[in-house]
Specification:
- The structure is a homodimer of 195-residue chains.
- Chain A is 39% helix and 29% strand.
- Chain A has 195 residues and is an alpha+beta fold.
- Chain A has one domain (20-47, 73-194): 3-Layer(aba) Sandwich (Trna Endonuclease, Chain: A, domain 1).
- Chain A starts with a helix and ends with a helix.
- Chain A has a six-stranded mixed sheet. Chain A has a two-stranded antiparallel ribbon with strand order 2-3.
- The A-B interface holds A 36, 39, 41-42, 44, 46-50, 52, 62-71, 73-75, 79-86, 88, 112, 115-116, 118-121 and B 36, 39, 41-42, 44, 46-50, 52, 62-71, 73-75, 79-86, 88, 112, 115-116, 118-121.
């Protein structure tokens, strides 16, 4: 037991790392709830797709799933409507101080965001640089440019530099209500241009 | 083998009844796939929300969910983007020849569709009258009118009459490719008006 505090600290750290994705996700979800109850936008997180294999029906109880597996999603995690515009995005976190690795993004997410973009939706990523505690809205076109070049030996790279975020993405203010006001960025940098 | 065609027919009929919910859903999903691969629209079914309680990690295998429960969704099943418009709907089936019972629709679906409507999206139900094998696109405003009146002793009723579908909903053609071309209805009755 003499090592308990240290062990606990270690454990907490592990937990933090494991749940960091959860934290960004729950900050976005609480923001979406704020948008919903204040009649600002209707944006929801899609449930994680799960393949159900076995279900048991204990008497007088609700159905209990006893065997199931996670499936690969075919879209991003968040979508909805804001001021008549279709909104679609995913959330990413990185511990790096210098860049967001492209391996954080999956091919199906890129393909989906490209389709959304093509059909007139507003597509982006919300990226959390944990070391700076900064949140950025990264426009899809910046993401696509880096993604499409990544296998180019001369121009390609496997990550999007932090400098690119500073120059070509938009900082999202972290606050109390809402937690992450990403629609303010949409107002300023997307919708203002449409007027 | 002499009975094969009859047996097969019976089997199909049983299958049809058991899976009718599934069938309408899969007809819509195959339609959405058609829309996606032909670059017409990006509309997906949302996964069923599941609360995962226990997961085991068998060695060298992927995570196995061993205890989980179905959760009540907070939205409709389908949403996406078509020609820049946010699209949101649910699918319903009825065996009745005279009406669609309102108990087929859940309060959270009505609330969600109302929010979508308010924010400028295109909200509706796709309703299958199985006895006639007819598919209708029921505009949200017709649905809301019946829903909001259902507890009114004088004017209210617990279902939407088939006649109302004939007069105020739009027939969706059932075909081969795509199976249920509901976006054609959107073109004709929604987007044409916007021009």
């Amino acid at each position: 037991m003499i090592n308990y505090p240290i062990a606990r600290k270690k454990h907490e750290k592990t937990n933090n790392r494991a749940n960091l994705g959860m934290t960004l996700e729950s900050d976005i979800e609480s923001t979406n709830t704020y948008y919903l109850v204040n009649d600002i936008a209707v944006i929801h997180k899609k449930p994680t797709p799960i393949q159900v294999v076995n279900v048991s029906y204990p008497a007088r109880n609700k159905a209990k799933i006893t065997e199931a597996y996670y499936k690969t999603p075919s879209t991003t995690d968040f979508n909805g409507i804001y001021k008549g515009h279709y909104i679609d995005f995913d959330a990413k976190e990185t511990n790096s101080k210098t860049s967001m690795p492209l391996k954080n993004v999956h091919l199906h997410q890129i393909e989906h965001l490209k389709q959304v973009d093509k059909h007139g939706g507003i597509a982006f990523l919300i990226v959390h640089f944990k070391q700076y505690d900064e949140y950025f809205l990264l426009p899809s076109k910046v993401l696509f440019a880096y993604w499409d070049l990544q296998n180019d030996e001369k121009k390609g790279r496997k990550s999007i530099p932090y400098e690119t975020f500073k120059n070509e993405a938009y900082l999202i203010k972290f606050g109390f209500k809402p937690r992450l006001d990403y629609l303010k960025v949409i107002d300023t940098y997307y919708l203002a241009k449409l007027k």
